[in-house]
Amino acid sequence: MTERDATTAFASTLVDEWIRNGVTHAVVSPGSRSTPLALALAGRPEIHLDVVLDERSAAFLALGLGKATGRPAVVLCTSGSAAAHIHPAVIEADHGDVPLLVCTADRPPELRDSGAGQTIDQHRLYGASVRWFCDPGPPEDRPDAGPFWRTLASRSVAATVSGRPGPVHLNLPFREPLVPTGAPLVEAPGRAGGAPWTSSDPSALPVTAIELPAGARGLIVAGWGAARSMASPRDRTWPLLADPLSGLRSGPLAISTYEALLRAPGFAEAHRPDIVLRVGAPVTSKLVNQWLDPGVEQVLVDPDGRWLDPQHAASRRIAGSVAITFTGDVDPAWRDSWLDAEKRARDAIDATLDSFDSPFDGRVARDVAAALPADATLFVASSMPVRELEYCMAARPDLRVVANRGANGIDGTVSTVLGLAAARDAGAPPVVGIVGDLAFLHDTNGLLGSARRGLDATFVLLDNDGGGIFSFLPQADALEPARFETLFGTPQGVDLEALCGLHDIAVTRVTDPAALVPALHDSIVAGGVRVLRVPTDRAENVARHRDLWAAVAAAL
Questions:
Q1: Residue 121: which residues within 8 A CB-CB, separation 6 or more?
Q2: In the prediction, which pLDDT does 237 show?
Q3: Confidence of residue 6 (pLDDT cuts 50, 70, 90)
Q4: What is the pLDDT of residue 229?
Q5: CA–CA separation, 258 vs 263, rounded Å?
Q6: What is the DSSP-derived secondary structure letter of residue 100?
Q7: Contacts of 435 (CB under 8 A, 6+ apart)
Q8: Could you give the C-alpha distances from 340 to 254, 343, 397, in angstroms and in order?
Q9: Who's near 205: CB < 8 A, 6+ residues apart?
Q10: Which of 60, 326, 386, 550 is most buried, by CB atoms within 10 Å?
Q11: Is 80 left (phi over 0), alpha (psi -120 to 50) or beta?
């Protein structure tokens, strides 16, 4: 009896079943042990395939695809330390609720723990960060192989999107030969009509109906994930403090200037609420989160059943989504005091930002967010960029703002933006990222080959030659300047324009604040991967934030 090729059949069956379950994108890092699956992915035109040298960058590219589409992208690597490089993206996908299908090739059992090259313990490598782990063993020619392989593929996709979305890890050991042998394949037919082997209906968030007293001194505070947990977003009778990442910073009751307002003398005490509806994760602002201490009654609407209460302040927790009914009439004095303060603060912030004659991070964030066309995607990096957007972005209803705020790191920033761009159809609204120089440098491997992939993405690069966020922390005052710069400021002194040139990426330097928006529009029209480099100064950045807070205090 002729020996059949189980390895090639297994890989092609997985890919076929993934396609039947809606997978459209895969990111592969080159390696030998992953050859069977890499060939199977490359052999299907239904799969858009990217090849990325660095595994960490590859995984974050797949993460960006998952953010953009709501469906998992496959990220494939070879065995050994390659699999470890994917871990940061797995952590972000876990904490950020992003579907991601991680496939790590592995040596077969007989080569493990025996000194074989490029072999580490990959069993449950990512621990509790994955929604499901499976090591099916090396492919074998056996009677029930087809149903087993197709169930494995169907379940792996379903586990990334069912309930709380997140990463799945398939550890796939392959024996040599790793290329097709030419022998007949093990038969593993799928269901008729291209149907999935096992279809899974997506889980809907449970909806809880709650009544809130409209006449109370109440607030709605919305962090990222909030849009998924508001079954009735029109019923915002209370003032709404919405982080840009929440998807809810819009409407007549949106308060966009809460960070500045709470810094104004007397405002926080005079506007302390009786009750707060907190939706989604905490807002970025540390000041707001500290203000909402356990002395304030708080109803926490927790998406996907997590426990998002780092201040340990919630008096009631609702897992899922809410439909809100307000009882009674709103207190007009309470509502109007917030709306009047918002108008005064907004005018003061805008006037102050417009008065600066050199680039300032907060103005860049405000202007980019305001200038993008409807339904554009704006990615904002962690550390200062996400805070600048929170401080300065005005309310608008038609901008998608995303960030890697699951674990709040700067890993994979460049690659995530490129993943968002890779999911973009031709003619769709643009993808723009606001990033700092350290986040950009941390993932420069993500730039490898990006100019040749047909992607359209503009990076607005805030270049202050170091970690600007540390200038706002106690370390800046506690340490003598030289030590602070060495340990926290960490200037790299890299010529970022020359670095981009090595990757064939066009750079426009913007030194006039008024020139930023025209340069942004030109970059979007030109297409491709482009960088707008905006030089700023860390010390000046701190001083200008103080000017903003002082202007708001004076306006109130």
A1: 112, 113
A2: 86
A3: very high
A4: 78
A5: 9
A6: E
A7: 379, 381, 385, 413, 414, 417, 459, 460, 461, 462
A8: 12, 5, 20
A9: 228, 229, 303, 304, 320, 321
A10: 60
A11: left
CA distances 36 to 22, 83, 115, 176, 196, Å, are 21, 17, 23, 10, 22
Instruction: Give the total residue count for the chain.
Output: 556
Across all residues in the chain, what is the average pLDDT? 95
Question: Would you say 99 and 71 are in contact if contact means Cβ atoms under 8 Å apart?
Answer: yes
CA distances from 280 to 243, 246, 304, 307 (A): 10, 8, 9, 10
**φ, ψ for residue 298 (rounded to 5)?**
-135, 130
Q: Which residue has the tokens 């799945």?
A: 168
Q: Return the structure tokens found at 225.
A: 């994930």
Residues β-bridged to residue 94: none
Rounded distance, CA 24 to CA 555, Å? 52
Structure confidence at residue 328 (pLDDT): 87
Q: Pull the structure tokens for residue 259.
A: 């960070």
Q: CA-CA distance, 150 to 32, in Å (whole number)?
A: 24
CB 67 within 8 A of CB 41: no
Helix ranges, 274-331 (H): 286-291
Domains in the chain: ranges and CATH: 6-179 (3.40.50.970), 207-336 (3.40.50.1220), 356-555 (3.40.50.970)
Which H or E run contains 255? Answer: strand 254-255
pLDDT digits (tens, 9 = 90+) for 276-319: 999 999 999 999 999 999 999 999 998 777 889 999 999 999 98
Question: What's the maximum distance between 2 C-alpha atoms anywhere in the chain?
Answer: 89
Q: Which two tokens stand for residue 68?
A: 């953009």
3-state helix, strand, coil in the chain (%, to 5): 40, 20, 40
Secondary structure class of 386 (helix, strand, coil): helix
Segment 410-439 mean pLDDT: 96
End-to-end alpha-carbon separation of the chain, Å? 88
Residue 231 confidence (pLDDT): 61
pTM above 0.90, yes or no: yes
